[in-house]
Amino acid sequence: MSASHTDNIPTHDAHIASHQDDARIFLDASRAHVERRLHQLVPHDSVEPRVIHEAVRYSLFAGGKRFRPALVVAVGTAFNARLETLLDTACAFEMLHTYSLVHDDLPAMDDDDLRRGQPTCHRRFGEAMAILAGDVLQTLAFQTIAGDDRLSSDVRVRLIGELAHAAGTPSGMIAGQARDLAAATHEIKAEELTRIHAAKTGALIRAAARCGALIGNARDAELEAVGTYAARLGLLFQITDDLLDVTSTAAEIGKTPGKDATQQKATYPALYGMKRTRELARAAHDDALRALDTLTYPTALLRAIARLVLERRA
Q: Is the dihedral of CA 113, 24, 28, 279 positive or negative?
């Protein structure tokens, strides 16, 4: 793909999006655009109070797949939305996701030492500053959407509602985290495990896809199809994450492997074993693809992204 195509982020040419390598090119291009815009949106670490901005940028620019913002862009461009109308919402999803990681790593939560290949925010800056860094990222996410004058007020209100619903409770990310913490104290069944991860991981991924579609003026039935696709994609993402925690090294995944087993966390391998977990991953992948069958818009890239999640190694 030429530099000009990368700069503009390719839309869904059937020939391009049907190949896994081209889906990777799309994700790389999306990540580059998102990171450039994040640098513009987040206060520089020379701005007072410097320490909080340093902690925020330390966590936000440590790397990461930028998967949730890429999904905003991928779905939005499928519905013919322009990149410039998608980018701030995409960045808001990365801000909110990074906030969740900073807080998730805290001693009162997962008590982790490594994130995205470097010491966690609280190890580098202390617990109090890590809490504040997470708070900044959360509030800045909503501020970013609210201030995006490329979008109508009505669309901005809907986007903020989607993001808040996915981040909070009773069916969003925080609810999933609370259930996950509670599950460490007792043995859980398959239904509860699914409920945990539908909220903890799936809710934000589903909202990212729906927000991309909203910016692209999708109809209600199309939003429903996109939401179902992304919900199954979120499940797939969590299942493969659980598998990687068992099979990968710290260098490969950028965080401490084996942590789930050490903390007796509820995971798919722990409940089902490795063979059945891999079968469940394939089923989630196939369900995600079926959800796209009703759409008349190009879906080849979305299908290729699901395949990449199924086959990911980091």
A: negative
Is the per-residue pLDDT at 20 higher than 80? Answer: no
Instruction: List helix spans (H) across the chain.
Output: 3-8, 14-17, 20-41, 50-60, 67-78, 83-104, 121-125, 127-146, 153-167, 173-183, 190-197, 203-215, 220-247, 250-253, 259-262, 268-272, 274-291, 300-311
CATH code: domain of residue 214:
1.10.600.10
Residue 238 inside a domain? The answer is yes
| 251 in a structural domain | yes
Domain hosting 282: range is: 13-310
pTM of the model: 0.90
Q: Tokens in use for 67?
A: 């998967």
| Tens-digit pLDDT profile for residues 270-304 | 999 999 999 999 999 999 999 999 999 999 999 99
